[in-house]
Amino acid sequence: MTASPDPLAIAEAWAREGRGVALATVVETWGSAPRPVGSHLVIDRDGAFEGSVSGGCVEGAVVSEAAEVIETGRPRMLEFGVADETAWEVGLSCGGRIRVFVEQVG
């Protein structure tokens, strides 16, 4: 079985290539969140991404927010779960909640 690519190494490589890059990191979880604290998703300016912060539940929303972080250089703290106002748009099917910090790389 082949190991998954390391999102941190990918972020560094993409930044060296001059691509606008953001790194999303799970910083807090509650309940049955699908990824542990410290999980990463790296996103480039064009929307390409590697890694995971939720097993597919909220990656699309994180990629969208990362585009703004890359554009402005301002980091963001995102929170997802079944009890917030975005529950019908994005949510964790397992019922947990996560906080994801998104920051520009490079």
UniProtKB/TrEMBL annotation:
<dbReference type="Pfam" id="PF02625">
    <property type="entry name" value="XdhC_CoxI"/>
</dbReference>
<dbReference type="InterPro" id="IPR003777">
    <property type="entry name" value="XdhC_CoxI"/>
</dbReference>
<protein>
    <submittedName>
        <fullName>XdhC family protein</fullName>
    </submittedName>
</protein>
<dbReference type="InterPro" id="IPR052698">
    <property type="entry name" value="MoCofactor_Util/Proc"/>
</dbReference>
<feature type="domain" description="XdhC- CoxI">
    <location>
        <begin position="14"/>
        <end position="81"/>
    </location>
</feature>
